[in-house]
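Predict structure. Chain length: 575.
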Amino acid sequence: MSAVAGASPLSVPLPLAGRGRGWGSIRLPHGLKITTTPTPAPPPPRKGKGIAATLLCLLPALFLLAAPARADTIWRRGETADPGSLDPAKTSTVVEAHILDELLEGLVTYDNKGVLKPGVAARWDVSADGLIYTFHLRPDARWSNGAPVTADDFVFSFRRLMDPKTGAGYANILYTVKNAEAVNTGKLPVETLGIRALDPATCEITLERPTAYFLAQLTHFTAQPVYPPSVAQYGDAFARAGRLVSNGAFRLKSYLPNDALVLEKNPYFHDAAEVALDGEIILPLEDQSAALRRFLAGEIDSYDGVPVDQIAFVRAHLPDAFKVAPSLGSYFYAFDTKQKPFDDIRVRKALSLVIDREFLANSIWGGTMLPGYSFVPPGMAGYGAPSTTGWKDESPFDREDEAKRLMAAAGYGPEHPLQLTFRMNQSENHKATAVAVADMWAVLGVRTTFIVTDATTHYAFLASKQPFDVVRSGWFADYPDAQNYLFLAESDNPGLNYAQFSDPTYDALMHDAAVQPDAGERQKILHKAEAVLLAQLPYLPLMTYQAANLVSPKLRGWETNVIDHHPGRYVSKVE
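Prediction complete.
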C-alpha cells in the first residue's frame, strides 16, 4: 500500500557534519518529498527541551512508576512490526522468525548463545559420503495438544514447503535437499523429495550434494514442522490463534494485529520443566522513540533498536541495558534493475559512489553500524575477508567527480535531473538514513520522493513484485555461510531477488560453488561471485549491522550472539 496521497512534505532537521563536497548539514534537496502513512505521533517534548533532556529529567520518575511486581513471569517483548504470517512456509521477515522460534522447533535448533544443538532430533548420523542424514527423534517430543511429533510430520511439512501449490517464497533455501528444486518448480512430484520416515521416530533426509551448512539450514523456520491435521482441517488458515498447534516452548494464546501477540508456556514441550517463563507478550512497536519511552517506563522488557538521535542518551544513562554486539547482518538498498534508468550500471554506480558510509554509520547510527563496502558482512566463518568495492579507498572528491561523469554519460545532469522514488518502512533510523542519502544524491542533481509504509505493507510490496525505483532492504544470516547472502542475486531466486538481477556469469559462479566439494575452492568461487555482484551493484551496500538491543536487567539468560537469537526457553525474569 502506497503512502497517503497529498501528505505534506516532511522537513527533517538533523545536525550532521559531513565530509567532502556535497556532504554537509542535512537539507531536503529541491523536489525531495517524504510521504508517510498516518501514524499516531508520540507526545512532543516540553518546549525548549529536546527529547533526551526530557527523558533525563523524567528518568528517576519513570523507574519509580514502573509496573508493580506481578505473580506471573511474562517477558514483554517489543518487536519492530507485526508478523505477516505465522505459517513457516509463508514468512520471510526477522520478526516472524523470532516468533516462530518460540512456537516451533525443528530437528535442530540454536541455544541462547547461538550454538547449534539438538531440537526434535535427539541425535543424528551422517553417511560417509555426506549425502544422507538420519535423525532420531526424541521420544518425548509432543505437539501443544499432546500428540506425539513424528517423522511423518516432518515429511509432510517438507513436502508442503516444496509443493508449488503452497507458494512458499523461501522454499529455495532448502534446495540442498535432493530433488527439492525440481519438486518446487513442478518438474517432479512431491513424493520424490529426498525425505522419508523410516519409522515414526526416524527421519532420513538425502541431499543433492554434500553441504557443510545443512544442519544450520535446519534451524531456519522453513524447516520447522506444521501439524498435519490442522492443515487438513483449516487449510492455509491453520496458523491463526485458536487453530495453531505448535511444538515449541510456547503456544499461541491470542493475537490482535497492531496490539499484541500473546504466548503461553507449552506444558507438552519436552523441556518444559526447564522453561522459567509463564509466557510472552509481543508488542509491535515500529516507532522506536515510543519503544524507548515504554522501556524506560517498564512497560516492555526488551526491544531491538534505539532511535539514532537517542543513542548518546542511552549509552550514558542505560549502559547496562544497551547491548551492542557484532551481528551477521547487511543494510542495503535495492534497485529494480528491470526499470529504466536503474537497468543502467552507470546510474547505479554513480548513486553508490557519492554515499559517505562512514558518516552514515558513525553520525547517523551513532556507531551502532559499521560502514559497508561488501555484500557479505565481515566475520562470516570460513569465508575470510569479504570482497569489497573497487573504489572503497578512493577520496570522496574523486568518487564524486566519477559519479558526475557517469551520470552525464547516462544522460542526466542539471538540465535533465534524475527523479526517483524511494520506498521504505517507517522507522526513525531508516528515515534519517534515507534523508542523508538523498542529500548526498542531490550533488548529482537527483530529486528524491519517499514513500513510507509500515513494515508489513513494505515487505508485502516487495513480495508482490510490483515495479519500483529504489527500496530499503537488509538481510540477517539464516545460517552462517556466504551463500546465504549471495543467493539473493541468483536469477532463479524470484522470491528474494528483489532487484530482479540476472547475470549469466554470476549464476554460473554460484552453481560452481554449489557443486564444489572442496571448502577452500568453494570459498574462492564465492568471492568471485561477490566481486561480480559489487561490480554490477543491483544492491547498494551501505552498512553492516551490529545488534543493538535494549534489555532489562530483570531478564536473565538473554545472551548476545552473532545471529542475534534469543529464545525464551532460556530466559527467566526477576522482579
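Summary: Confidence is low (pLDDT under 50) at residues 1-70.
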